[in-house]
């Protein structure tokens, strides 16, 4: 966990508090009309107010709080490891819980069939090509086809996937079956 925490701090420019502030500032841009359309078309209609939704790498929890307004009885769980992101979480809804865990080496086990939707929204921003290579492991560790294959092996049905940001990011709607 320490190694991943140090890596995240380096990945976020060495200043976690600045990175957390940037996450809050860029929330609307990262959850833009394209994101919301994808969510609505592939996730929203399949969920009930009793849904179990997890957000892998939830940052400051803003999307979970937004989901809590739409699904006040849902079980919303965020996974986040970066302490500066955890510090920026404020006024989380009553049905939002946060698990601090290393997604590269997780210690949390979720019960089988306990998740309806898992969200992992990769939205890397690169200042230069060198930066892209420096952060390759964090943002491009797996090809979208690899993630889809892993989700299928875990019992999810892939409802949709699409790349955006010129192929640098992917959205995947995976439904528990």
Feature tags:
alpha/beta, 9 helices, four-stranded parallel β-sheet, 177 residues, two-stranded antiparallel sheet
SSE map:
Blueprint: H1 2-11, H2 16-25, H3 27-30, H4 33-42, E1 52-56, H5 62-70, E2 75-79, H6 83-87, E3 96-99, E4 117-119, H7 129-134, H8 136-139, H9 144-153, E5 156-164, E6 169-176
Parallel strand pairs: 1-2, 1-4, 2-3
Antiparallel strand pairs: 5-6
Question: Would you mind describing this structure in some detail?
Answer:
- This protein is α/β, with parallel strands linked by helices and 177 residues long.
- It is built from 9 helices and 6 strands, in the order H-H-H-H-E-H-E-H-E-E-H-H-H-E-E.
- The protein has helices at residues 2-11, 16-25, 27-30, 33-42, 62-70, 83-87, 129-134, 136-139, 144-153, and strands at residues 52-56, 75-79, 96-99, 117-119, 156-164, 169-176.
- The strands form 2 sheets. It has a 4-stranded parallel sheet, with helices on one face.
- A hairpin with a 4-residue loop joins strand 5 (156-164) and strand 6 (169-176).
- The longest helix is centred in the first third of the chain and has 10 residues, at 2-11.
- It is globular, with a radius of gyration of 16 Å.
- The chain starts with a helix and ends with a strand.
- Mean pLDDT is 79; it is low at 123-137.
